[in-house]
Design goal:
- The chain has about 400 residues and is an alpha/beta fold.
- It has 3 domains: about 45 residues; about 240 residues, 3-Layer(aba) Sandwich (D-Maltodextrin-Binding Protein, domain 2); about 100 residues, Periplasmic binding protein-like II (D-Maltodextrin-Binding Protein, domain 2), CATH 3.40.190.
- The chain has 14 helices and 15 strands.
- Strands 11-10-12-9-13 form a 5-stranded mixed β-sheet. It has a 3-stranded parallel β-sheet with strand order 5-1-6.
- Helix 7 links the parallel strand 10 and strand 11.
- It is globular, with a radius of gyration of 31 Å.
């Protein structure tokens, strides 16, 4: 048999290659069609799952963008109490002042570079305060709110560092003959509705086997009822009780019992799934505490920033040390000087406490004192009597 010419062999090879390509294309096309169908089904299933879950849980990324909203708006919407002296109170001229208010200013200074760029939204009603946050009517809730597991898990709220440690106590008239809850059988007790306080007192009286008559309402209403003699006892956080009594002309007629029945760590709350915003709030609070620990004050912060004595101060204030680089502390959503601005606006934690609360609720040797031992701390509180307020490391 005569072999085909080279040209003929090339033609045959080309025809064979083309045929193979057509067959392969058909096979690949069929496979691709099957894969496309499977992918389409997977996408449909994922879409249904997405509809059933919060976006943050599906994507693994923060759902919120509160910092950008605040910066675009140019104002921080801070939900505060406006009926509690010392912590959050609106005076006759419309000015809102208090311990919690100072943290709103510090955060506004950190994020907006203006401590006055705050709108104080009334969150005095405890029963609706978390709705204000969840609905976006406020950016942050700072109004004597206790961290609890159920709130953290169920109410779409995430808590930052505790700003004030307190516990539930009881106020009575000095001439009432009441020295503890064991003397309160069938007493009428004024308690704010919709709070952990209401549940705590119910649990406590169940535990000690006594009946009582609860009188509920808003914070200012139950306080008024107590001072008008319409109930025998007022129960609330000990800090709240002190703030109610200290402003009264007849403050000496009342006493706060030494008995405390709960732990009430009060902290700012933000919406869940917005980690950047929570981080900023959290580290502003820690920064104010750390400033007190190392002696940074509203008066000296500018000088310290101009000539920092060490790397820690430089890092906290967002400035270079001896020609080194500036540390941003890992933050990308705010600039390096955000803590510096917060301190310049309101001072350190101790300055805020002294200015807004002072001797009305003594701080020395309480949980709200700085943790010991600290070299600069002169007060000897004895074993177990030191504070627990300290900042996490800035590094």
């Amino acid at each position: 048999m005569r072999l085909p010419s080279l040209q003929g062999r090339r033609l045959v090879s080309a025809l064979l290659f083309a045929g193979a390509a057509l067959v392969a294309g058909a096979v690949i096309g069929a496979c691709t069609s099957d894969e496309d169908q499977q992918q389409a089904q997977a996408v449909e299933q994922q879409t249904q799952q997405d509809q059933d879950q919060p976006a943050a849980q599906v994507s693994g990324e923060p759902r919120g963008n509160t910092i950008q909203l605040i910066q675009d708006r140019g104002t921080l919407l801070c939900g505060v109490k406006q009926t509690q002296p010392l912590f959050g109170n609106r005076d006759e001229d419309g000015n809102v002042t208090g311990f919690d208010i100072e943290f709103c200013k510090a955060i506004a200074a950190a994020v907006l570079k203006d401590a006055n760029a705050v709108e104080y939204v009334d969150a005095s009603d405890a029963s609706t305060r978390f709705e204000l946050l969840a609905d976006g009517q406020i950016d942050i809730l700072i109004r004597t709110t206790t961290i609890t597991s159920s709130r953290d898990m169920e109410l779409d709220v995430d808590f930052a560092q505790t700003t004030f440690y307190t516990g539930q106590g009881f106020a009575v008239r000095k001439d009432s003959g009441i020295d503890s809850t064991s003397d309160m059988a069938n007493a009428s007790i004024c308690v704010q509705t919709g709070t952990t306080t209401e549940q705590n007192v119910a649990d406590h009286f169940t535990d000690i086997g006594l009946d009582y008559e609860p009188t509920g309402g808003l914070s200012q209403d139950v306080a008024a009822a107590f001072f008008e003699g319409r109930c025998d006892v007022l129960t609330a956080d000990a800090s709240d009780l002190a703030s109610r009594i200290v402003v009264r002309d007849n403050a000496d007629d009342y006493k706060i019992l030494p008995q405390i029945i709960s732990k009430e760590p009060l902290a700012p709350g933000v919406r869940d799934y917005d980690s950047d915003w929570k981080d900023v709030v959290n580290w502003v609070v820690h920064g104010l505490i750390r400033a007190e620990e190392i002696g940074l004050t509203q008066a000296n912060v500018a000088a310290m920033a101009s000539n920092p004595p060490n790397t820690e101060v430089a890092r906290l204030l967002g400035v270079p040390f001896e020609g080194g680089s500036v540390s941003t502390l890992g933050f990308e959503v705010v600039d390096a000087q955000f803590i510096q601005r917060a301190i310049a606006a309101v001072g350190n934690y101790g300055e805020i406490y002294d200015r807004e609360i002072g001797d009305a609720i003594p701080r020395d040797c309480t949980l709200n004192a700085l943790a010991r031992p600290l070299p600069s701390e002169a007060v000897d509180c004895g074993p177990g009597e030191g504070g627990i307020m300290y900042a996490l490391p800035y590094r």
